[in-house]
């Protein structure tokens, strides 16, 4: 649990002091020759096109200081129709959701190096403790931390994602989420 806490602090610090140049954390292939589930994500459906998510609009995260950044959210073809459809939002195995997390509006506008948080939907029963999702965290310029089930990273991410409820497949960003944001503004 200490390493997950250290990761959270590290992500928060990285978001605050992210370097202006892009690092391997935001490139589509972080290690030369290594294929990842999120390769090419900039070409996927962009859920936040023209409307980056800011802060903690749902209040689910307790308005933690490091959650006040700007986010761009992408979803691959496997999950695009679900995220744009109607509840229940039950994503098929193979769905990958990528969030670029920027420290603030200026970092977002300048496209400074964001942290990446990635969710990968697994086959039913593959990781029931994390609701069949695997999570990847990549602070700028650092190596990925990946986890599912009872792993530290899996537990850390699942704790917040449980607030999104089963009808949203434990994810916040979908058509209903954006409709709710419109009503608030």
UniProtKB/TrEMBL annotation:
Q: Which UniProt keywords apply?
A: Signal
Q: Which domain of life is it from?
A: Bacteria
| Location of the Cytochrome P460 domain | 58-173
What InterPro entries does its record include?
Cytochrome_P460, Cytochrome_P460_sp
Q: For this UniProt entry, which residues form the secretion signal? A: 1-18
Which Pfam families has this protein been placed in? Cytochrome_P460 (PF16694)
Protein name according to UniProt? Cytochrome P460 domain-containing protein
